[in-house]
TrEMBL record:
Its main location: periplasm. This is PBP domain-containing protein. GO terms for cellular component: periplasmic space. The keyword tRNA-binding does not apply. One of its GO terms (molecular function) is molecular carrier activity. It comes from marine sediment metagenome.
Amino acid sequence: MLWVVVLAALIAISVTTFWEPGRGSRRSGRTITVYGYSAMEEPLKDEVIPAFQEWYRRTHGEEVEFITSFSSSGHLFNQIRAGAPAQVAIFATEIEPTKLMEDGLITTDWRAFPDKGTFALTVAVILTRDGNPENIQSFEDLANKSVDVLLPDPTTSGGAQWAILALYGSAFLNGAGSPSNGRREPAAKLLKRVVDNAGSLPESARKALTQFGLGYGDVLLTYENEALVDISKGRDYEIVVPQSTIAIEPKVVIIDANVGEEDAELMQTFVDFLWSTN
């Protein structure tokens, strides 16, 4: 089925990124290198990292520097697999961490962390222009041929993969017929119609949001937290939360291959902090 194929596909797209060679090498000072999917940029840089730095300075008497990089989950995966020095990574889905564990780059099981590695929750939503001129109320409304849908590329964007699950799941739950055999085909057909309404496929949720701000598309499928961040900057958008949507569970992982023995405790301390009340 289409949604299965899309979720399984990951294309190795090269990106221009510079990093230090070698894995697990000693870095001077107390430094944590964090890679995150695009929607994590503001929460990490504006809130989480400053809070951790202040707490660590107060409790350990040391400064901690952070090196950060944000992109689509697919690009993060390709970068880390190619040797990028991420020590902690936050992915939009569990697909990429699972593959990195299979490759031996991750040995610490994130599923043993609190909430199986999910330290934040958001949901898939529809972002519309001011006043909701297309009168969008549900994912099913996006199948109308007159609606220009902006969707990130599912082969690189975890947000797009979650959106596809939300589309399919909503149609499946709300459709007629029995769940065992009467709803799958209509749900797949609805998903195809919505994807067919999508024009360009930006590589990440953030780039899709940027394009939406430039006037592309009538609606955007995105994370609720991404939509709220953009509206807080003065954008005249409206958020539609469909009656049936999906809870998005990003995963935080430690890239053990890039963590020397002397840094292991610091990485775990930072990860533990994500669930703390400090």
